[in-house]
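Retro notes (design track)

What went well: tokenization of the new backbones is finally stable.
What didn't: we kept losing track of which sequence belonged to which structure.
Fix going forward: every design gets posted as structure first, then sequence, in one message. First example under the new rule, 292 residues:
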């Protein structure tokens, strides 16, 4: 009996890992499409169109996976706050993609878990020991290796990507304040709703003349982004975070590959050195999380 249970548990673990990797691939694809679009469109315009397309998809997913009741939130103001933070993070990241290679921007956003750990003491009143503090410091050294402040290769856009990682971290931290009656699908729904509302002002701005391919690109970013978040959310439901979270870092592989295939850009060696430091610190933090 225990042998069969072990086999089932192992199968579930591998299924969760595959699901996580697929979700990360979809999100990397989403980022590549966005990098293509941002050469012509304002970041807020991209957020608006993407949200409008994604909204009915997410509503359908919520109704199918949960129930229409999940469309209601028990604590709406927190979702509004997360919407503001999410739009800010999206704007900063998308704007950084105008200049940065996809792999470099992706590597810098890897700092988000480090920021979450750093903010857990002041915002969540959690104890952060010396070992975790050391991991946070080491991780931010990795960020400095990539950004290289003061060097000839330094780009202001790198600060935007770092800012995006900080705002994404606030989105993650604020998830702890959501009413427990709200499911993860409800969270996704309201993030999309508020992203659409907060970027709706772009209707009154000047838009570039749309090309026929733009429709498919916008559809691609909405579908890839929604599928990516859905699959990653499902992976965390299928297995413990310590099992699936490290595979989030496979995004660097896909970002490097897509950047090379589409733009012919190969990241500098310092991007990989810094990313390795950040990833090592992030994985340590994942496995040092107190088990509850």
């Amino acid at each position: 009996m225990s042998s069969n249970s072990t086999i089932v548990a192992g199968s579930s673990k591998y299924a969760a890992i595959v699901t996580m990797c697929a979700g990360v691939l979809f999100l990397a694809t989403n980022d590549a499409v966005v990098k293509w679009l941002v050469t012509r469109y304002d970041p807020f315009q991209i957020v608006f169109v993407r949200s409008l397309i994604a909204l009915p998809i997410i509503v359908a997913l919520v109704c199918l996976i949960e129930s229409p009741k999940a469309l209601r939130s028990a604590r709406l103001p927190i979702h509004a706050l997360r919407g503001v933070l999410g739009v800010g993070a999206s704007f900063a990241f998308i704007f950084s993609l105008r200049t940065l290679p996809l792999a470099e921007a992706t590597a810098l956003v890897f700092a988000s878990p480090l920021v979450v750990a750093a903010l857990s003491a002041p915002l969540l009143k959690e104890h952060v020991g010396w070992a975790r503090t050391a991991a946070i410091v080491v991780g931010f050294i990795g960020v400095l290796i990539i950004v290289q402040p003061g060097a000839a290769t330094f780009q202001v856009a790198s600060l935007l990507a770092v800012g995006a990682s900080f705002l994404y971290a606030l989105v993650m931290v604020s998830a702890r304040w959501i009413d427990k009656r709200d499911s993860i699908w409800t969270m996704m729904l309201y993030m999309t709703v508020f992203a659409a509302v907060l970027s709706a002002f772009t209707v009154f701005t000047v838009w570039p003349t749309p090309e026929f391919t733009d429709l498919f690109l916008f559809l691609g970013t909405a579908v890839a982004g929604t599928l990516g978040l859905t699959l990653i959310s499902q992976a965390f439901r299928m297995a413990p975070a310590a099992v699936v979270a490290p595979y989030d870092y496979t995004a660097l592989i896909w970002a490097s590959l897509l950047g090379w295939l589409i733009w012919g850009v190969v990241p500098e060696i310092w991007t990989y050195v810094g990313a390795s430091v950040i990833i090592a610190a992030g994985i340590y933090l994942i496995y040092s999380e107190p088990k509850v």
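Added context from the reviewer: The chain has one domain: 2-288.
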